[in-house]
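<goal> How does this chain fold?
<sample>
Here is the protein in question

***
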Amino acid sequence: MQSIFTSLGQPEIRMTLAFVLALGVYFTLKLWLNMRQIKFIMAHQMAVPAPFDTRIDLEAHRKSARYAFVKLRMGRLALYISTAILLIWTLAGGIAGLAQLVQHGFSHPLHFGVALLVIFSLLNSLFDLPLAFVDQFQVEQAFGFNRMTVKMWLVDLLKSTLLSLIIGVPLLYAVLAFIQTFPQTWWFWAWALFLGFNVLMMWLYPTLIAPLFNKFTPLPDGELKTRLETLLTRCGFTSNGMFVMDGSRRSGHGNAYFTGFGRNKRIVFFDTLIEQLTPAQIEAVLAHELGHFHHKHILKRMAWMLPLSLAGFALLGFLVQQTWFYAGLGVTGENGILERLTAQPEHLYAVGLLLFSLVLPVFLFILTPIFSLQSRKDEFQADAFAVKYANGQDLIDALVAMYRDNASFVGTDVWYSRFYDSHPPATIRVAQLQAEMAKQSS
């Protein structure tokens, strides 16, 4: 008994126990939420709730139930696989073994770190491919949403991989160079680089990244463009244009989004959305999106992410210097790998970066409801803005149409919604819109 308590006093054992406990909570919560949502869907698949019952027939509702059920079953399988892979990479010594192999080929501290992180990313992506393929060419295909060929899917995969390497490798070299040059404060400079990179990508994405995967054409002249330009003027909003994206080449799902930053903002509509909705409904959807900009939701989110991300990088800067952090996550003294890494701090820190990125989502999952709650509050604010500057009933009709055409199930288990829903549940959202319409008309 004394030896057990003595072992628990060792920091690497406490690290292992903390990780196992966090992973247990993470896995159990995700599995529990998945099962609750399946149970909810099975219990409510035979009746369409108002006001959706006037626009969505029972057969379409049951189709959305089947679609959601299959997606949830796929999500459960993905949870099992990802948890097993995480344990293999960490406690089973996968990262330690990979680091040992990479050390034989790359002795230079910068080259070692980049090679380790790139090889790990490629291997981890390979593990995700089978389920991604099944989802695209069996699930989406079975429900009539897939428009992609296998060739297009593979070309997209190749493009995204090459793009990640082109962008990611220089960033990795920069971070590892910070470690070498500023061994005590490198995490601060890495944080500053992280922020600058994200702002740059927000600015470049519309004109440089997105066109690599889709074709964007200016919204043609006509009733829709006239309505939307009038709305933009009424709201005092300027953008770098409104564009139609050929989303139908890949999927039958419809969507619309804002992208860009500063003067490089774009409004993008999927061609499928334009086919699904009337001009008045699209105007209401756009008014909702303008509400996010009016209330500065993106800037506010960035503002509170600044201290959180800084705290995260500071924690990373502390942990990568602690040998118990590595030993507690599977990089032990076996075969002398931890000693060899410790002898070359740049190598050790690269492994620390990898371990930190792997385990952080597990520890942070419990905070998910906080972020989801804030997102839902933002959606309510944007809806209120849309009611003020467009027609609230048109927005309700648009929501109903998108739920119907995207086979989105109307209804969500309360706890599943608290964790995962970035948007309010459909029935609650419509009720709030109706209340806002009554409030503004009185």
Notes: Confidence is low (pLDDT under 50) at residues 1-7.
